Amino acid sequence: MFQRLPNLIRKPISFSFEGQEIEALEGDTLASALLAVGVSSLRDAPVSGTARAPYCMIGVCFECSVEIDGVSHQQACLIPVCQDMDVRRQQAEKEAGDALGG
Amino acid sequence: MASDVIIVGGGLVGAALAHGLVKASATVTILDEGDLAFRASRGNFGLVWVQSKGDGMAEYARWSRQSSDLWGDFAKSLGEATGINVGHHRPGGLELCLDQGEYETYATSIKRMHNQPGVGENDRRMIDGDEVRRMEPNVGPEVVGAAFCPYDGIVNPLYTLRALHQILASSGADYRGDHRVERIVPEGTGFRVVTARGDFTAGKVVLAAGNGSPGLGPDLGLDIPIGPERGHIIVTERTRPLFNHVLGQVRQTDEGTVMLGATKENVGFDTGFNLEMMRQVASRAVRKVPRLKTLRIIRSWSALRIMSPDGFPVYQESEAFPGAFSVSCHSGVTLAAAHALKLAPRLLEPGFNDHFSAFSPRRFDVPTTA
């Protein structure tokens, strides 16, 4: 659905999403890098359990929450992608608070 | 431009009254401010709350309970008319206590209300910390008890406001946004309402403009003793449903965010932030519900309550200019159902002040004796 602008001159880098290697360009936000390769399902909603995609792309809606290098609830639309980032979908059952064990 | 009734204010109070008037076959014009208005309807916590209402005024306890009882069908009717689910639930509410002093304060209030006529203490009762944790497993060990009332609930105030306006638009009410009222002139048997964008006339006029009402009252012989009280709200990111009941200061929305409140400050029309008070709100919330600790805060704001000296509503019809009314209250969400279904029809009949005598501002004229 999304296409990159032609003639972008930026350094290619790679990172992983759910264990799969993804090609990106330096300067991409994580959300735009994922959308550029057709990945849109970044998390499961904690109430309904349904899959969600980045929506506002400006840090307001929190629909793009992901886990980055083991840290949950990061906003993919605000974070520049880095070489070798390990990105996972934000799972509903991994919602904040569970780590405390109640 | 003539209509039966002009409502000044298009927030939850004005919109609920307009909805009730249209249902009673009146023609209604609503004159509202613009986007920058102080709008408690958009800044509030969204509780349909009974348990603490009316300690010191039995009529207000009964009125709040009546509205709570009406809310279920009211929400259903809004949904059927608009397709908007306003998110009303009435699972009962808990006010959590972090120390014995708070527990005693609620217990004493219950005893006082038990001795009031009518609905008494609204079946509110104190429960101990262990029972609270059985009801709400996410409540932490610091909580020593709670006041529980089975008639407390929640609703989404934004969807409610939108649903009311959608109904008004489709039922022929004349809504004028960005029409701040400058003054009101009694004229013949009715009123001329002056805005920067033209004059409007009607047989009756109702001030429902929140903290904007007092300034318009003197033209109509109405003394409206209310003013702003600032409150802060903090909102966390979404998390899975945590509670079986509504907690008074920790309210999870249907969407999963958790709203934290509440502060009270008298700072005029300043909607800035008091960070120390917000820290206290967050700290108390985490002591009550420890698992909130790792949730990120995504939004916070302050808004202004509409507060009378005793916290109870002020309803009145002008004696100098009959047909001019003011309807002011803190609880525009809780009372929306009663305002639409019970108060609005009374605006069209004689005897308003007799019916709502308990809510007259005359109660403030009586000097209290020692």
In short:
Chain A has 102 residues and is mostly beta strands. In chain A, 7% of the residues lie in helices and 28% in strands. The radius of gyration of chain A is 14 Å and the shape is globular.
Notable traits:
A: 102 residues, Ubiquitin-like (UB roll), 5-stranded mixed sheet, 1 helix, 7 strands, 7% helix, B: 370 residues, alpha/beta, FAD/NAD(P)-binding domain, 2 domains, 8-stranded mixed sheet, 9 helices
Give the largest interface pair and sizes: A-B, 14 and 19 residues
Q: What proportion strand of chain A? A: 25-35%
Q: Percent of residues of chain B in beta strands?
A: 15-25%
Write the CATH fold name of chain A. Ubiquitin-like (UB roll)
Give start-end ranges of low-pLDDT stretches of chain B: none
What does this structure look like?
Chain A has 102 residues and is mainly beta. Chain A has one domain (13-91): Roll (Ubiquitin-like (UB roll)), CATH 3.10.20.440. Chain A is 7% helix and 28% strand. Chain A is built from 1 helix and 7 strands; from the N terminus they run E-E-H-E-E-E-E-E. Chain A has one helix spanning 30-36; strands spanning 12-17, 20-25, 43-44, 51-52, 65-68, 71-75, 86-89. In chain A, strands 2-1-7-5-6 form a 5-stranded mixed β-sheet, covered by helices on one side. Chain A has a two-stranded antiparallel sheet with strand order 3-4. In chain A, a hairpin with a 2-residue loop joins strand 1 and strand 2. Chain A is globular, with a radius of gyration of 14 Å. The termini of chain A are far apart. Chain B is of the alpha/beta class. Chain B folds into 2 domains: 2-46 and 158-225 and 310-363, FAD/NAD(P)-binding domain (3-Layer(bba) Sandwich); 90-152 and 227-307, D-Amino Acid Oxidase, Chain A, domain 2 (2-Layer Sandwich), CATH 3.30.9. Chain B has helices spanning 12-23, 40-43, 58-82, 100-114, 129-135, 157-170, 275-288, 336-346, 352-355, and strands spanning 3-8, 28-31, 47-48, 93-97, 125-128, 145-149, 153-154, 174-176, 181-187, 190-195, 198-207, 227-236, 246-247, 250-252, 258-260, 297-307, 314-317, 324-328. In chain B, strands 1, 2, 8, 9, 10, 11, 17 and 18 form an 8-stranded mixed β-sheet that branches. In chain B, strands 5-6-4-13 form a 4-stranded mixed β-sheet. In chain B, a hairpin with a 2-residue loop joins strand 9 and strand 10 (190-195). In chain B, helix 1 packs parallel to helix 6, helix 3 crosses helix 6 (157-170) and helix 3 crosses helix 8. Chain B is globular, with a radius of gyration of 21 Å. Chains A and B meet through loops of A and loops of B.
